[in-house]
Amino acid sequence: MNAGKLLGLEDASRAERALFFVTMGVMLSLGGFGFLRPSLLSSVLTGAKGRILTYFGWWFTLLGFVLLIAVFAFTASRYGRLRIGGPDTEPEFGLFSWLSMVFTVGFGASVLIWGVAEPVSIVQHPPPDPAPVQGASAESMALAFMFIHEVFPGLAMWYLPVAIAFGIVVYTDGVGDYKISSMLTGIVDEDRIPGLYWLVDLAALIATIGGISTTLGFSAQTMSAILGGVFGLDATVLTYAVFALIGAVFLADVWLGLRKGIRNAARATVVLIGVAMALLVVVGPTLYMLELSLDATGVWLSDMFRLTLYTAPGAEGNWAANWTGFWWAWWAAWSIFVGSFVARVSKGRTIREMFAVLVVVPTVFTWIQHGLIGGWVLAPGYQEPVAEAMASAGNPAAVAKALEITPFGTVLAVLFVLIIAGYIITSLDSAVFMISAITLGDENPNPRNRAWWGALLALFGMMSLRLEEFSAIESLSVTMALPFSLFLLLVLYGSYVVARDYVRDDERDRLGPQTVRQQRTTRSVTDDD
User: Fold this and answer.
1) CA-CA distance, 274 to 280, in Å (whole number)?
2) Which residues contact 2 (CB under 8 A, 6 or more apart)?
3) Nearest 5°: phi and psi at 231?
4) pLDDT of residue 521
5) CA-to-CA distance for 10 and 2, rounded, in angstroms?
6) Distinct helix (H) and strand (E) counts, the chain
7) Which of 33, 117, 248, 397 has its CA 20 to 30 A from that of 93?
8) What band does 523 get if pLDDT is binned at 50, 70 and 90?
9) 3-466+473-528 placed in CATH 1.20.1740
10) What is the reported pLDDT for 513?
11) Which has the closest alpha carbon to 145: 382, 359, 312?
C-alpha cells in the first residue's frame, strides 16, 4: 500500500494533498512547540486573544446582532422555503436522529462545563457598576448571561449563516465542490484571486481543529477531575484508559460512517442528558433551582437586547469583552465546522425546518439544562464550595466538587462521565468527518483519511491532561475567529445571491420566459401606480 492510499489521499488533487500536509504540519508543529515550550506558547496565544478581545470585542458584539437580524430576515423571506439539496430531495435522517446530531455537535460538553463555571464565576466577579440590569440579584443576572451566551440569541447568530450558505450553495445550487471556500462562489471568482479558496480552506481547518481540540481538552480534564474528586481514583491513568476505550469506539464509528456511527452516538448522548437532568431535579436543591430558573428567565427575556449589546463603556477592565466577546468569537470559530455539518445532515429539509431544529428546539432544551445546572451550583450550600474549587483548581474541579457535595452524586457523576464520553465520541466523529470532507472535497470521505484526522484530534485532547498551558489552544480559535468574522458576512450575502438566482431560474423553468416577463411587467406597472 503506497503512502497516498494509506493516508486516504489516492484520489486527492495536488492542492488537496497540500492542504492535508500543510494543516497536519501546522498543527503538529504547534503541538510540539506547546510540549517543549508550553509557557511561551501560552504567552503568545493568550496575548493575541487578549488583544483581540480588548480591541475587537465590540466588533463581535455588533456582528452577532447583525447576523441575528439577517438570519431572521432570510428565514422569514421566500428563500426560507428552499429545500437543502433541491425540491425533490428526501430527508436522510429521522427527526430524533437529526435533532440529536445537531445538538450534540453544536454544543459538546460545554453545557456541563460552562454551565457550572460561568454563572458561579459571574456571581464572584460581577459586571462593573452600573449593573446592566438594575434590581436583579447577582445569581439571576449571572444565569441570564448564561442564557444569552448559550441559549438565545447565541444559538441563532453563528451556526445558521454557515449552515444556510453551505446548504444552498453546495447542495441546493449544486456547486459540486464540498469545501468551505465553495461558499464564496456567488461573490468571488476563484480564478480572479489565485490561491484564495485554498487559503480559506486552510484557515477553516486550523480554526476548526483548534476549537475541537479545546473542547476535547476541557472534556478530558473534566472527566479526570470527576474520576479523581468523586471516586478517589488515579484520575489521569484512568482517563487515559477511558480515552483508549473512546478511541476504539471512535475507530469503529469511523468505519460505520455517518448514518450508524455518529447518529447512534448522538442519540445515546441525548438520552443520557435527559436522564441526568431528571435525576438532578430529584436529588438537587429542587425548589431553589426552579425558582432561580424562573427569575433568571424573566431577566433574560425582559432585558435580552440590553444584555446582548452590553459593552460596559468607560468601565475599567474588559468584563463584557472577556465574556460576550469571548463567547461570540468562539461561536464564530466553531460555526465553520458546525454549520457545514448541519447542512450535511439537513438534506431534504427546508431552511425554515433547519432554523427550527438548530434554534427553536435547542433553545428550549438548553434553557432547561442551564436553568437546572445553574440553579444547582448557585444554591446556598453549593455556591461557595464550587467557587473555592474553581478558584484553586479551575473549571473541571468545580464540576467535580458540585457532584461530590450532591446527594447521590456518585450516580450523577457516572452519568456525567458517560455524557462527556458521548460528547467526545460525537465531536470526534463529526469533526473528522467534516475536516476530511473539506480536505478532499468529498461529501463522504474515506475512513482512512478520517482516522488520521481523528488521531490528531485525540492526541491534542490527551496532551491537555499533562500540559495545563495547552489550554492556550483555546486562544487559537479566538484569534482565527477575527478574520472569519468577515467571512461570515460574505457567505451570508453570497447565499442570498445564489438563492435569488436559483429562485429566478426555477421560476423561468416552471413558467417559461414569456410568463415571467409578463409578471415582472405587471409588478412594475402596479408599483408605478
Assistant:
1) 10
2) 10
3) -105, -10
4) 47
5) 9
6) 23, 0
7) 248
8) very low
9) yes
10) 52
11) 312
Write the CB contacts of 146 (distance below 8 Å, at least 6 apart in sequence): 114, 115, 118, 119, 122, 370, 374
Looking at the predicted structure, is the pLDDT value of residue 435 above 60? yes
Q: How confident is the model at residue 49 (pLDDT cuts 50, 70, 90)?
A: confident
Sign, CA dihedral 101-105-106-107, equals positive
**pLDDT for the residue numbered 483:** 80
- C-alpha distances out from residue 113 to 208, 472, 509, Å: 20, 17, 52
**3-class DSSP state of 340:** helix
- C-beta separation of 499 from 168 below 8 A: yes
Confidence of residue 232 (pLDDT cuts 50, 70, 90): confident
- Which residue type is seen at 38? P
To the nearest whole number, what is the mean pLDDT of the chain?
A: 84
Q: What is the distance between the alpha carbons of residues 236 and 28, in angstroms, rounded to a whole number?
A: 23
As given in the structure block, the three cell numbers for residue 34 are 506547546
Answer for the pair 517, 366: CB distance below 8 angstroms, yes or no.
no
The one-character DSSP state at 146 is: H
DSSP 188: -
Contacts of 248 (CB under 8 A, 6+ apart): none
pLDDT (0 to 100) of residue 110: 77
CA distance 233 to 80: 52
**126 — pLDDT class (breaks 50, 70, 90):** very high
Q: CB neighbours of 263 closer than 8 A, spacing ≥ 6?
A: 93, 97, 100, 101
**Dist. CA 235–CA 418, nearest whole Å:** 15
Q: In the numeric block, which cell numbers belong to residue 124?
A: 464572584
pTM of the model: 0.87
What confidence tier does 434 reach under pLDDT thresholds 50, 70, 90?
A: confident
Tell me the domain boundaries of the chain.
Answer: 3-466+473-528
Which has the closest alpha carbon to 177: 438, 383, 380, 459? 438
Instruction: Name the percent of the chain lying above pLDDT 70.
Output: 87
So what's the pLDDT on residue 107? 73
DSSP structural state of residue 244: H
> Which three three-digit cell numbers place residue 501?
438566482
| Residue 262 DSSP code | I
pLDDT score of 246: 62
Helix or strand run (H / E) with residue 349: none
